[in-house]
């Protein structure tokens, strides 16, 4: 067999193997999403709140109750109800919120950009300082830098986020007046600035008014700092443990024996080998911020998905709760799938 024939055969086998991996990954993603749909459907049927009573009221007659139950399709077998549920979802129909009297899909499109903006800003700062702290801790284990990184990680894990938010409001808003307080904008700008995208920073930039941008940043930085601390603690703790484990491997010991500096070992040898793990850590941290900003948004009156979900829970608004749960679960699944694909691309050992 000639070399060229062998090369063509090897490339063909490689292409087939990668195609199988892609198909397998897509099937796994589809099954996971389908499992999420089943979970939300079961949750809607197991909820203690009767959607028919929410629609017709407690004083409706039995005939009215039965008619409404028939129109909602609740008198059909569960498999048929699930098929109707999938059919409505395929058309973007998540039901109507009892709280806002608006389609749930419209409420999610209105509130989710605020959560994305808050989580993304917090993720950027949390990732930058988290990676820096982990690198400082690994640079000289047992030093004051290592103790500082461990203390910040412990602080971020131990302090309740709602208590930290209230303390931040008391100190930086009520006492020092460094923050503009709850909400996304002052009322004077909320009703004068046209919000096209739902992202207040982007809309403030597009408005061309520096005062609006300054006010938006003044409202944003404190909740971002609270969430960034939570994210930074998670990233620092996990990345520090992974990098310390890599520091004891033979290739690092060999680099030390050759006289490489500690900084070069971290940047050139250790960091590239933990890049795949770092991607997974960042993806999980970002997904946690998207789903875990409920308390932060409630404390800071941030009109995002977390506050919307909290209000829906208190109002027993099942359609809104299920819509928000489905959106958060889908984001979590997609972020994990994206992290797996990116890890395989940057780290050949995982293929």
Automatic annotation (TrEMBL):
All copies of domain ABC transmembrane type-1, residue ranges: 112-339
Q: Does the keyword Metal-binding apply?
A: no
- Segments spanning the bilayer are 21-43, 116-139, 151-174, 220-239, 266-288, 308-335
Q: Which UniProt keywords apply?
A: Cell membrane, Membrane, Transmembrane, Transmembrane helix, Transport
> What is the name listed in the Swiss-Prot or TrEMBL entry for this protein?
Dipeptide transport system permease protein DppB
Source gene? dppB_3
PROSITE patterns xref list? ABC_TM1 (PS50928)
- Report the GO molecular function annotations: dipeptide transmembrane transporter activity
The record, for InterPro entries, names:
BPD_transp_1_N (IPR045621), MetI-like (IPR000515), MetI-like_sf (IPR035906)
Q: Which family does it belong to?
A: Belongs to the binding-protein-dependent transport system permease family.
List the residue ranges forming a coiled coil, or say none. Answer: none
Primary location:
membrane
Q: Which domain of life is it from?
A: Bacteria
> Any keyword Membrane?
yes
Q: How does it sit in the membrane?
A: Multi-pass membrane protein
Q: Where in the cell is it found?
A: Cell membrane
Q: Which GO terms describe its cellular component?
A: plasma membrane
């Amino acid at each position: 067999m000639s070399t060229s024939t062998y090369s063509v055969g090897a490339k063909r086998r490689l292409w087939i193997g990668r195609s199988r991996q892609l198909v397998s990954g897509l099937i796994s993603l589809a099954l996971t999403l389908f499992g999420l749909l089943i979970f939300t459907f079961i949750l809607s049927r197991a909820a203690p709140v009767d959607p028919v009573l929410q629609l017709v009221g407690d004083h409706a007659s039995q005939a009215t109750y039965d008619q409404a139950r028939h129109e909602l399709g609740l008198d059909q077998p569960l498999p048929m109800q699930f098929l109707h549920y999938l059919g409505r979802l395929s058309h973007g129909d998540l039901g109507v919120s009892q709280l806002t009297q608006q389609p749930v899909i419209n409420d999610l499109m209105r509130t989710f950009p605020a959560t994305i903006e808050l989580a993304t800003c917090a993720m950027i700062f949390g990732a930058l300082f988290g990676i820096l702290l982990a690198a400082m801790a690994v640079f000289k284990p047992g030093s004051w830098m290592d103790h500082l990184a461990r203390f910040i990680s412990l602080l971020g894990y131990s302090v309740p986020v709602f208590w930290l938010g209230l303390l931040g409001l008391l100190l930086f808003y009520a006492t020092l007046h460094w923050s503009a307080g709850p909400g996304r904008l002052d009322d004077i700008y909320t009703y004068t600035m046209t919000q096209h995208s739902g992202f207040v920073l982007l809309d403030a930039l597009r408005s061309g008014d520096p005062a609006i941008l300054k006010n938006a940043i003044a409202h944003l930085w404190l909740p971002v700092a609270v969430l960034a601390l939570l994210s930074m603690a998670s990233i620092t703790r996990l990345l520090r443990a992974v990098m310390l484990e890599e520091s004891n491997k033979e290739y690092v010991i060999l680099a030390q024996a050759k006289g490489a500096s500690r900084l070069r070992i971290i940047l050139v040898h250790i960091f590239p080998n933990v890049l795949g793990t770092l991607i997974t850590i960042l993806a999980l941290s970002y997904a946690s911020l998207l789903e875990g900003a409920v308390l932060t948004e409630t404390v800071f009156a941030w009109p995002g998905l977390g506050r919307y979900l909290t209000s829906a829970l208190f109002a027993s608004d099942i359609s809104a709760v299920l819509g928000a749960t489905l959106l958060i679960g889908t984001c979590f699944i997609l972020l994990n799938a994206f992290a797996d694909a990116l890890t395989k691309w940057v780290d050949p050992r995982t293929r």
